[in-house]
Amino acid sequence: MTRTWLGIDAGTSVVKAALFDDDGQALAVAGRPLELRHGAGGAVEQDLDAVVAAVGEVTREVCAGQVPHVVALTGQGDGCWLTDAGGAPVRPALSWLDGRAGALLGRWTADGVTERVFRANGSTLFPGAPGPLLAWLDAHEPDALDRAVTAGSCKDAVFTRLTGERATDPSDSSMPFGDGSGTGYSDTVLDAMGLAHRRDLLAPITVPVPQAPLSPAGSAVLGLPVGTPVSSGPFDFPACARGGGVREVGDALLIVGTTLGCMVHVDRLATAGDPAGFSVATGEAGRWLQAMPAMVGTASVDWMLRTLGLPVSAIDAALAASPPGAGGVEVLPYFATSGERAPFVDPQACGQVTGVRLTTSRDDLLRAVCEGLAFAARHCFDAAGGLERLVAAGGGTRSRPWLQVFADVLGVPLELARTPEVGARGAVLAAAAARGEALDVATWTAAEDVVEPDPSVRERYAEGYARYLEHVRAAQPFWATRQASAAVPA
């Protein structure tokens, strides 16, 4: 009898599910949108009950009466999801986009806390990381923490709701409380953050990933039989790396999504040099993913499209009409309201557009932001130590002309990850490996296409990248000045 494998990706804006056969062919795919609630002081929250309900809906749609061999979970990383013993939310989850811990993080940076954390486990802090958010809650809502049993990640909270089991995997546990090994938490890190007294809120770590049977309550959610195996795999970035075939040291992943996910498979824990990025444990001894998940991505392109009054379809046309270099227009694409987190952390980072003249066209502006994001990706990969082989995934890969820009700027071929649902695919592969069940990984992760760099534009983009770095260095002092001036009453 042919087996099927259900992969579920509980993302920030949508829950997606894909039902795969033994060869990695997607038999059915479904998605449900999720709501983010924005509030005062930079609050961005999410409803776990709504996430769980969406998980149930997409499961019922893609399974349509079939019983999968395994249910494999992945989902958004970071944030802080407070739950009770049964996995019910104690309060709305604090999203990784939440900015309320920004001032706290500023104090930590000034006091050397952020550097001590990085030296311990290779993780850079940002306002939406679990450490600052948990500390913010400890200061402002300690009663919520007192009522909670677990302060964890999204997909682990879903796992508890479906199985009744409390656990996390090496990837989520490593950022930022881990000891660097992927198997334990660091007393040094917890003490530095003033969170040692909240250690019990951190879920036990299961290597390689947590597994448990579907509970009666979980069966009611998914419409699947009690006892169906459930796995809580790596969070979305490392799950995409696995689903894209990032296996060897030097292999890298570029996710062109709402944010840019830049990850390199490495054999050393990066705790030296200037703090930057995140060392994500893989569950394998001596192997990490050096991650530079920028806050910029397709959201920056979407902003430019809205501002110019253009549809998404205008991207390809603009890249055809405006030549490399965008007519002299250059963009720092740091448009996120929470600043930037990789390859540097600056909550005050903001965008910049230069080189505009009366002859500048909308096509030039759109190409410039696309090029700026490619430069940002190169900045991230350079900070991660370079790359030897690159796999690309994410919604932005639907634009072949934009992929060509990435290939030209990065100077390496881009292998397009097998679709659909690369993250859900990776979650299934992680689940199968943990169960000791053989799947043909090469077939499951075979590239759909390859985009080769154009050598004729290599020099132009090398110069453009050098100018990009100059713009970043010149802008950084003004970001701090901008914060100070904004605080002065009119």
Termini separation:
73 Å
Question: Strand order of the main beta sheet, please?
Answer: 14-15-13-12-18-19-20
Uncertain segments are none
Secondary structural class: alpha+beta
Shape: globular
Structural Rg? 22 Å
**Mean pLDDT value:** 94
What does the largest sheet look like? 7 strands, mixed
Strand content: 15-25%
Beta strand count = 20
Q: Helical region count?
A: 17
Salient structural properties:
17 helices; six-stranded mixed beta sheet; globular; seven-stranded mixed beta sheet; 38% helix; 490 residues; single chain; alpha+beta
Please describe what this structure looks like.
- With 490 residues, the protein is of the alpha+beta class.
- The chain has 17 helices and 20 strands.
- The protein has a seven-stranded mixed beta sheet with strand order 14-15-13-12-18-19-20, sandwiched between helices. Strands 3-2-1-6-11-10 form a six-stranded mixed beta sheet, with helices on both faces.
- A hairpin with a 3-residue loop joins strand 12 and strand 13 (260-266).
- The mean pLDDT is 94.
